[in-house]
Amino acid sequence: xxxxxxxxxxxxxxxxxxxxxxxxMLASPAPGRExxxxxxxxxxxxxxxxxxxxxxxxxxxxxxxxxxxxxxxERGRALGIDPExxxxxGRAFAGAPMIVAVVFTPRPSDKAPEWEQxxxxxxxxxxxxxxxxxxxxxxxxxxxxxxxDRAFLENGLGLSSEEDISGFIHIGTPVSRPxxxxxxxIDAITTxxxx
Length: 195
Hints:
It contains seven helices and five strands. With about 200 residues, the chain is an alpha+beta fold.
């Protein structure tokens, strides 16, 4: 490791052991507005070619998650989605202490194509997930069919026709810590090229 670099073993230890908290293991309270704003500031600190900021945040608090949970039930029925699937989506929204919708807002650019802007959005979602966990909250990154349903996005969240969702980040107090899950075998997925 370079000697002139600031090495932070605590951050490395956190990254080695971080774990998402399933949405159904999150309860109230959620972070307040001031702490949420600080988490969003961290979330936005990502590689962003051209400094386009191709994202925005919608913080769902109060009765908003419950309203969207009801809308998910109605939309799921109307779309003919499997009842078990749309009921699960409805519960995930309705029972959430807080959800941050990370909205993809593509920007015209000769330097950064849309696919690259989407990657930046994924980085925002992961940064928010990790920031919430590092601050002691439980968090989970969800998408699902509701993240692709135009009526849900436009009528429920007020998105424009050009926008979509990169992630619904559920944040709250973990009622318990999830067990560790199997991780990828790094040797099986890594190729070293030296020449």
